[in-house]
Design a protein that fits this description.
Blueprint (H helix, E strand, L loop, with lengths): L1 H23 L3 H13 L11 H19 L2 H6 L1 H26 L5 H11 L4 H8 L5 H28 L6 H30 L5 H21 L4 H19 L2 H28 L1 H10 L4 H39 L1 H12 L1 H4 L4 E3 L2 E3 L3 H23 L4 H9 L5 H7 L9 H30 L7 H20 L7 H22 L4 H21 L5
Helix pairs in contact: 1-2, 1-12, 2-12, 2-20, 3-10, 3-11, 3-12, 3-19, 5-6, 5-8, 5-14, 6-8, 7-8, 7-20, 8-9, 8-11, 9-10, 9-11, 10-11, 10-12, 12-23, 13-20, 14-17, 14-18, 14-20, 15-17, 18-20, 19-20, 21-22, 22-23
């Protein structure tokens, strides 16, 4: 009964933090961490300890799956270079730099244990970075931060396992690269297969409630086999979510997608809130462990402060040249726009330019109709990609937000608690990880809004550009509706219009012609209109 009361109080606390946070302008995760820390320090509150596997294997897969389902696949593809650079290379660099720092400041730690702790505090947290989604930042920044936080946990956990293994035996660079490649490739294959099977099975189930229940199992169906094979279960869950999010609008009915969206929002609220509340509540038990080992808490605070400052400095030093490289790539792509325009004109106006004839090496090439259509699609997508990069360039404003929004969270604490029992100064290392994560959330998360407002908006994120995009989307919907021929049945005609508009929006999404999140909103509106129309019933049923 006591456990049930605690769960109920926890749920009410999560709802209260979400409601209060929206009113006072403070993110709910920050409130929950602070409340959890305050409650844990009360003398009559017992120490709280949660098995880290509950977080890493039970909470993170559904949270990452849900985030990846809602992430526009086109944005993920376009920003994959930045996402990969941040989620892999930056984690490696940060782990090594922090590992050297920890080895230097913690007596008797050793370089491998230092790298292990560096890998623990290096990855950003997917839930923590969701704070940035609620602020007026560039959609590109949101996509980069979200994509980074979806994938960098896998890099960090592989490095953590490698560093722990390195304490007992020699580890070569090739073995590390091999383990990482295996963990990612196997996870991608499993996640892709689970995502595809998920869509095929759920497309044949008519009951929305049963359909949603199946969706709750998908992240675990992807992550558990991947982990059993030694791959990354988190990456598998992310890939399954990306495949599901991309294919669901063409495969699942509007009622199924609406049920999914509503129920997964509830799951996200409960799991996200629970993660941060539990994170705060664990402080007292961590402090007790440090005191039992007769290790200094003030020293841990100083080390954590230095590590937190170092994570921001390393991230800033890394992001600055990355943005310059992305700007250079965008300028090179801009130069090929006239060539793409000429090719497009030649393909779209054969009566004026003649039949298209290309070359493959030194030989002339006359493509078939299918090849020509695929070539047109590639031209449209390439041109749309270039417009996307030029419309919202990444400058110092975006770089500042990317650096400051890289917050640590509950993953850092859960990973620290997986350290073996014979780890030197284990309680101290866990406390340092906790302080880095909590300090990052409170300091960076609490001031992120001020930083965003301080750097101002970017030239590519103006209100006028959003209005123009909405106007073009409305024109797309109108043209799709006009193309539908009425058959004399009002309801069937309206459903046909909605279906044509949905297909037009999905084709535009695949070609990257509009902002992915804006198109997702349009799809939700079309789904709601169709559900409303179907519920009305009538003689056309």
């Amino acid at each position: 009964m006591d456990a049930l009361i605690i769960v109920v109080l926890g749920l009410l606390g999560i709802v209260a933090a979400s409601t209060l946070g929206a009113r006072i302008g403070v993110a709910a995760p920050l409130l929950l961490v602070v409340v959890g820390i305050g409650v844990s320090l009360l003398p009559w509150v017992p120490a709280v300890h949660i098995d880290p596997e509950w977080i890493l294997a039970g909470v993170l897969p559904p949270l990452l799956y849900s985030a990846s389902v809602s992430m526009p696949s086109m944005d993920f593809r376009r920003e994959f270079g930045s996402i990969g650079a941040l989620s892999v290379l930056l984690v490696v660099v940060s782990s090594l730099v922090l590992g050297a720092f920890f080895t230097w400041v913690i007596p008797g730690l050793g370089i491998w244990w230092g790298i292990a702790l560096g890998a623990i505090v290096s990855p950003t947290d997917a839930v923590a970075t969701s704070i940035a989604k609620k602020l007026p930042v560039s959609p590109r920044v949101v996509s980069i931060l979200e994509g980074e936080s979806l994938l960098n946990d896998a890099t960090a956990l592989v490095l953590l396992r490698t560093a722990i293994a390195g304490t007992a035996a020699s580890v070569s660079l090739w073995s590390v690269l091999g383990k990482f490649a295996f963990a990612v490739v196997v996870a991608v294959v499993i996640g892709f297969l689970v995502g595809k099977v998920n869509l095929m099975v759920r497309a044949r189930i008519t009951d929305s409630t049963a359909n949603t229940v199946i969706s709750f199992t998908v992240p675990f169906l992807a992550s558990i086999p991947a982990e059993e094979l030694g791959a990354s279960g988190l990456v598998a869950a992310v890939v399954a979510g990306l495949v599901t999010g991309y294919g669901a609008p063409r495969t699942l009915s509007p009622s199924h997608r609406l049920s999914d969206a509503q129920n997964w929002r509830t799951v996200e609220l409960v799991l996200e809130g629970s993660v941060f509340l539990v994170m705060g509540l664990e402080l007292s038990s961590i402090i007790e462990d440090v005191r039992a080992e007769h290790q200094g808490i003030p020293a841990a605070i100083l080390v954590a402060a230095g590590a937190l400052a170092l994570t921001v400095v390393v991230r800033a030093v890394y992001v600055a040249p990355l943005l310059r490289a992305l700007q250079a790539v965008a300028r090179r792509r801009e130069k090929i726009k006239p060539t793409l325009h000429d090719y497009t004109n030649q393909l779209e106006n054969p009566e004026q330019y003649g039949e298209f004839k290309g070359r493959r090496g030194d030989k002339p090439w006359e493509p078939s109709d299918n090849q020509l259509e695929r070539f047109k699609t590639r031209l449209r997508r390439t041109a749309a990609d270039i417009d996307y990069y030029l419309a919202a360039p990444l400058g110092w404003r975006e770089g500042t937000v990317v650096v400051w929004a890289g917050m640590r969270g509950a993953v850092t604490l859960a990973a620290a608690q997986t350290l073996p029992e014979d780890t030197p100064s284990r309680p101290l290392l866990i406390l340092i990880a906790f302080l880095v994560a909590a300090g990052s959330l409170i300091l960076q998360g609490g001031t992120l809004k001020r930083v965003v407002l301080g750097v101002g908006s970017s030239p590519g994120t103006t209100v006028d550009s959003d209005i123009d995009e909405r106007r073009r989307i409305l024109e797309l919907l109108d043209s799709a509706a006009v193309a539908v021929v009425s058959d004399g049945s009002s309801k069937r005609y309206q459903l046909a219009v909605l279906d044509a508009q949905r297909q037009a929006v999905l084709d535009a999404r695949d070609d990257g012609l509009f902002d992915g999140r804006m198109l997702a909103t349009v799809l939700e509106v079309l789904d709601a209109d169709q559900i409303s129309l179907e519920l009305k019933g009538g003689p056309d049923d």
